[in-house]
Design goal:
Order of helices and strands of chain A: HHHHHHEEHHHEEHHHEEHH
Distance between the termini of chain A: 50 Å
Oligomer: heterodimer
Number of domains of chain A: 1
Number of helices of chain A: 14
Largest sheet of chain A: 2 strands, antiparallel
Number of helices of chain B: 19
Structural class of chain A: mainly alpha
Strand order of the largest sheet of chain B: 1-2
Distance between the termini of chain B: 56 Å
Shape of chain A: globular
Radius of gyration of chain A: 21 Å
Number of strands of chain A: 6
Radius of gyration of chain B: 27 Å
Largest sheet of chain B: 2 strands, antiparallel
Helix content of chain A: 55-70%
Structural class of chain B: mainly alpha
Number of strands of chain B: 6
Largest interface: A-B, 75 and 76 residues
Chain lengths: ~375, ~550
């Protein structure tokens, strides 16, 4: 089959780098708000009816939203196998915690209303809190670690090796910059969850959510600004040395990498990428204003814009790096040396071009069917069928 | 068993996969049964069918969520615990997994929410379509994961690339239309349909024994028995298809399942029962059925099926050729573009057996330095544990045939005996509820344990596939999974029991309206309308 040679390997790699960003952003925009709702749950909703109101705003959609995450994982596996292999095994225990939280969440949604007891329901409420807050925080921590570089190297047969003991590796992730990234990601999704509750709930739940959302938005914006400054003064960047074969074989060891300088040189080389952080700040600022003024649809859209800006700024700043190594910079993964083969990228692109529009279309239809607020009366009237 | 990272990783994968597969078969089958029930509702307008769809749909939901949740573990685990595997075959194996997300998971997950929340928001037909889309999504997901799994057993459409040190896809169509994957797919979804049918049958039988919800129970039995009969036949037929394709592609697995130590003259006999002895290389007290094995395995009278001893000898030669490939590979990797053409040619010639050289890495760091004893030992390692496979397979097949008998019996009583079921048969139906799960788990055991010592047959040994982790890492997560999964399992079963006890809830208003319409129709048609009086005219309880 030579059809795949219609698109250059180099271009396919860039397309898949963009698609990786699209999937992660899609995840943050959709699953992000229901994780935000979960993390806000114990604070914005106090009685059982209030909690059910909050939960049922995301009840019918969280399941589909979560698939952005699953597909993100699958796409990393299919398009960037070394990234999948190294990050998932390198962050082993952290991944396990994320996994446990993500398993807890579906179960909590589904089982919470299946029994009446107060203790039963409160336990699941905390499970929803953990299922929302822990992944939101840890994904940020992971991104922070990717910016800092990770202590792995590849053997000459490309076996990933990761330095450190089991717990040492886990706690080694909790570096200050990474924690700050975690705070940004958590607060950003809390704001997003609040914007969603403002749109889909009413009464005290929506009011409290907006108040929390404003605070979360402020934390996210200042944390993001602080992280930018920190990148300027306290974090080493990485750079490829010499000419790189952009359509060469996917072997990271074929390229030479240096560590030093700053990531932010990217903004000198490609000034247009400044649009991403600007979108981030503008989106959050407008979302905060919207939360304050009680606007609903526009607030959610601004919040989405802000998150898109923040997520894409990380990728654009690091390009072409996707996972730098601190202990052996030459092992670092870049867009040019860590992808799948030409054919696989092409086949996957064809599948994506066919199915992603379909997915967006039917997801939009489902949201349209479910349009409208979930009120406390809805919950009381449909106690049997709702969560 | 020694507590090393390889064994612990295998244990964890086996445990989490088997746990995941407690929920998957019911999801596969029940989604379809619910969609069928809802279709009958749309066609007949009888509220009882809607009530059935809702009731079985709710049990489906309790089960579905754990299938989803434990499925996340499966996707993560390749990267977490099998990182060299992920690197080595991700180019091929990752694609169907991503396809699964694109084609299947989005479909099923987006519409499952609407299935539960959309009863009042959608028209009848719309809701029925949603139910079908959920069923379609679940079944698509099985298709893609079995394409991935089928490739592990029969790695077609890919070749090794010395530059990237991994397998790369050469033909997506070969991967897609892998014969092993296709027969596995139909076999596995049919097993799911049988599981759901046995479940619906058993729970309905319980209601009949308790003399409650009899209307719903009888209709459910009718659906389960007809759907279950077709599926049970399909499981066995496609299982046979799997056997046939195994004889072409997975010779060692087949020989081990049959405990066929020596190559027998064609057509080989089938060993019905016996006691395989791996040490002595013979099966004690074996009872043979002449010709049967040859007919099942090769569908001919003169094709020889190789026995274990012959395959071991073959594998020893493959290891020798693998060492030649490995040696050439090392030269190519050291000199890259400067590597002499004849070395590349040598590599091309022997690269199919490269994986066999990796088998030696259990004993020696550099396969080129292996002694003849080590080569013999590595060839010996290519024989999986025969007795467990032999027995697991026989129990699975026995259960498979018993499902046909059960479904046939209930189908007969439902169709020709006015839905009257003797009490002993109802007790039996309740008692066999766990059986399809046992059969399904044994089936996976045969498929995966039978492929050892490989993760990808002939390409990558299991021992080489693992991540660079410590025993501590593994012990922490393994303990975590055991505790966490046990708690979830107890909760799931207790909720299932609670909602089965509680039984279906009736939509009073709709039933009343339907009955009015029905009686009106009876009056206007002098009782000769499309709905004759009798069992059907009793309103839903």
């Amino acid at each position: 089959m030579i059809l795949h040679e219609l698109i250059d390997f180099e271009i396919l790699r860039v397309i898949w780098w963009v698609l990786l960003g699209v999937l992660l952003t899609g995840f943050a925009l959709t699953d992000g708000f229901d994780m935000g709702v979960g993390a806000l749950l114990p604070f914005v909703a106090r009685t059982d009816v209030e909690r059910r109101q909050a939960i049922n705003t995301v009840g019918p959609v969280w399941e589909g939203n979560q698939v952005w995450f699953i597909l993100g994982g699958g796409a990393i596996f299919a398009a960037w196998p070394p990234l999948y292999a190294i990050s998932f095994s390198g962050f082993y225990l952290a991944m396990f915690l994320v996994l446990a939280a993500l398993i807890l969440r579906p179960v909590a949604f589904k089982y919470r209303s299946k029994r009446d007891g107060k203790r039963w329901r409160e336990t699941w409420d905390w499970a929803l809190f953990i299922g929302g807050a822990v992944p939101a925080l840890l994904f940020g921590v992971a991104v922070g670690n990717v910016l800092l570089g990770v202590p792995f190297h590849l053997t000459d047969t490309l076996m990933p090796r990761y330095d450190g003991s089991a717990l040492g590796k886990l706690f080694g992730l909790l570096r200050p910059v990474a924690l700050l990234a975690g705070v940004v990601s958590l607060s950003m999704l809390l704001m997003h969850g609040a914007a969603w509750l403002g749109l889909k709930a009413d009464g005290p739940v929506a009011d409290r959510a907006r108040r929390f959302g404003i605070v979360a938005g402020l934390v996210a914006a200042s944390g993001y600004a602080l992280a930018g400054l920190w990148l300027l003064v306290g974090v080493d960047g990485f750079a490829l040395v010499g000419e790189v074969a952009k359509d060469g074989p996917s072997n990271p060891l074929y390229n030479e990498v240096t560590r030093g300088g700053t990531w932010l040189v990217a903004y000198d080389e490609r000034p247009w990428i400044a649009i991403a952080p600007l979108m981030g700040f503008a989106g959050i600022a407008m979302a905060i204003r919207g939360l304050r003024a009680g606007r609903e649809v526009s607030t959610l859209l601004w919040s989405k814009l802000g998150i898109t800006g923040i997520v894409s700024s990380v990728g654009l700043t690091m390009f072409p790096f996707i996972l730098p190594s601190t202990v052996d910079p030459d092992s670092s993964l870049t867009v040019w040396d860590a992808s799948s083969s030409h054919l696989t990228l092409f086949v996957m692109l064809v599948a994506t071009v066919i199915f992603l529009p379909l997915i967006l279309a039917y997801t939009a239809w489902v949201y349209r069917v479910l349009w409208g607020k979930v009120t406390q009366d809805d919950v009381s009237d449909n106690a049997e069928t709702l969560y | 068993m020694e507590l090393d990272v390889v064994e612990l990783s295998r244990l964890q994968f086996a445990m989490t996969a088997m746990f995941h597969f407690l929920f998957v078969p019911l999801t596969l089958g029940l989604s379809l049964i619910v969609a069928i029930m809802e279709t009958v509702y749309v066609m007949t307008n009888r509220p009882i069918w809607r009530q059935m769809a809702k009731f079985w749909g709710m049990l489906f939901g309790i089960n579905f969520v754990l299938g989803v949740a434990t499925g996340i573990t499966m996707e993560f685990q390749f990267g977490m615990n099998w990182s060299y595997y992920s690197h080595y075959v991700g180019d091929v194996f990752g694609a169907p997994l991503a396809m699964e997300g694109l084609m299947a998971f989005f479909l099923e997950a987006t519409f499952v929410g609407l299935f539960f929340f959309g009863w009042d928001k959608l028209s009848k037909v719309q809701h029925m379509v949603v139910a079908w889309l959920v069923a379609l999504g679940s079944n698509f997901s099985a298709l893609w994961i079995l394409i991935a799994n089928g490739w592990m057993a029969n790695p077609v459409g890919a070749e090794f690339n010395p530059d990237t040190m991994r397998m790369e896809m050469t033909s997506f169509f070969d991967v897609l239309f892998n014969e092993v994957a296709q027969s596995k797919f139909v076999h596995t979804v049919s097993a799911g349909y049988v599981t759901a049918s046995v479940f619906v049958l058993g729970v309905s039988a319980l209601y009949l024994l308790q003399r409650r919800h009899e209307n719903l129970a009888r209709r459910s039995i009718a659906v389960a028995a007809s759907f279950g009969l077709a599926s049970a036949l399909s499981v066995v037929v496609l299982g046979d298809e799997s056997g046939y394709s195994a004889s072409q592609t997975q010779k060692m697995k087949l020989a081990a399942i049959e405990a066929m130590w020596q190559t027998e003259p064609a057509p080989a006999p089938f060993t019905l029962v016996g006691f395989p002895d791996q040490e002595a290389r013979e099966t004690h007290y074996a009872i043979h059925i002449p010709w049967a094995m040859g007919l099942i395995g090769t569908r001919s009278l003169d094709t020889v099926i190789p026995g274990i001893n012959e395959l071991v000898a073959d594998n020893a030669q493959k290891i020798e050729r693998g060492i030649i490939a490995y040696d050439a590979l090392m030269t190519i990797r050291a000199e890259r573009d400067a590597a002499p053409a004849e070395v590349r040619a040598t590599f091309e010639q022997h690269s199919d057996d490269l994986g066999y050289a990796f088998l030696l890495m259990r004993y020696v760091d550099d396969p080129r330095e292996a002694t003849p004893e080590q080569i013999a030992q590595a060839a010996e390692d290519t024989v999986p544990g025969v007795a467990p496979l032999f027995w697991a397979f026989r129990i699975m097949v026995g259960l498979g045939f018993s499902f046909i008998a059960v479904m046939l019996y209930f189908f007969y009583r439902a169709s020709f005996k006015g839905m009257n079921f003797p009490r002993w048969s109802l007790y039996g139906a309740v008692a066999i509820i766990p059986a399809p799960w046992i059969a399904a788990e044994l089936g996976w055991f045969v498929a995966e344990y039978g492929r050892q010592p490989w993760t990808v047959d002939g390409v990558l040994p299991t021992a080489l596939s693992v991540s660079h982790l410590s025993v501590t890492d593994l012990l922490i997560t393994l303990t975590g999974f055991v505790i966490f999964y046990t708690v979830l399992f107890v909760i799931e079963v207790s909720l299932m029991v609670k909602y089965i006890r509680k039984g279906p809830t009736q939509d009073v208003e709709e039933t009343r309206k339907w009955q009015e319409r029905h009686e009106h129709r009876l009056r206007t048609h002098d009782g000769k309308g499309p709905f004759a009086p009798g069992a059907a005219s009793t309103p839903a309880e």
